Amino acid sequence: MYKWTLCEWKDVEHLRKIAKKEKHNVNPSVNTVWFGLTNDKEYIGSAGILLFAKGIARLKSMFILSEYRNMGHGTKAVEIRESYVFETLGYRRLDVISRFRKFWQGRGYRVAVKVNDNKDHLFITNKEWQKEKNGN
C-alpha cells in the first residue's frame, strides 16, 4: 500500500543523492513542510511545500523512485499538498514554478509570470481551488 504522509526532511533525505543522479533537485530548506511517499517499508518519494508569509505557499520539487513512477503518485502528491495548504493551513494562494504549464492550467492555475523559455510561475487562490475541487 502506497501512502503520502507528513514527514521530516530526515525521513526523505536519502532520496537526495538518487534524485541528483537523475538531474532532479531534492534539497532541504527552511520553512518547508515535507511529505513522503511510503510503501509501508521505506520512503520512496518526497514532495515539499515552501511556506511564505501572508498566506502564500509554493510547491517544491517532487521526486519518486523510478520503479514507482507512472502509478498516479505524482498527481496524488499535488492533491494532498493543495489540500494541506488550503484546507489545513487556510492559506490564500499556492504557487508553483514549472515547465508543465498545461498540466497546471488544467488544474485551474494561472500564469503569474514567465520565468524563462522553459518555466512559468503559476498560482491558484484558495477560492479558485475550491471552485475547481467542487467542479464549478
Describe this structure as you would to a colleague.
This protein is of the alpha+beta class. Helix content is 30%, strand content 35%.
What's the total number of strands?
7
In quaternary terms, these chains amount to single chain
How far apart, in Å, are the first and last alpha carbons? 32 Å
Class of secondary structure makeup = alpha+beta
Roughly what percent helix? Answer: 25-40%
Principal-axis shape equals globular
Number of helices: 5
Characterize the biggest β-sheet: 7 strands, mixed
Low-confidence spans: none
> How large, in whole angstroms, is the Cα Rg?
15 Å
Please describe the structure with a list of short key phrases separated by commas or semicolons:
7-stranded mixed beta sheet; alpha+beta
Give a concise summary.
This protein has 136 residues and is of the alpha+beta class.
Draw up the topology in text:
Layout: E1 3-7, H1 9-12, H2 15-21, E2 32-38, E3 43-51, E4 56-64, H3 73-88, E5 93-98, H4 101-106, E6 110-114, E7 120-125, H5 126-133
Parallel strand pairs: 4-5
Antiparallel strand pairs: 1-2, 2-3, 3-4, 5-7, 6-7
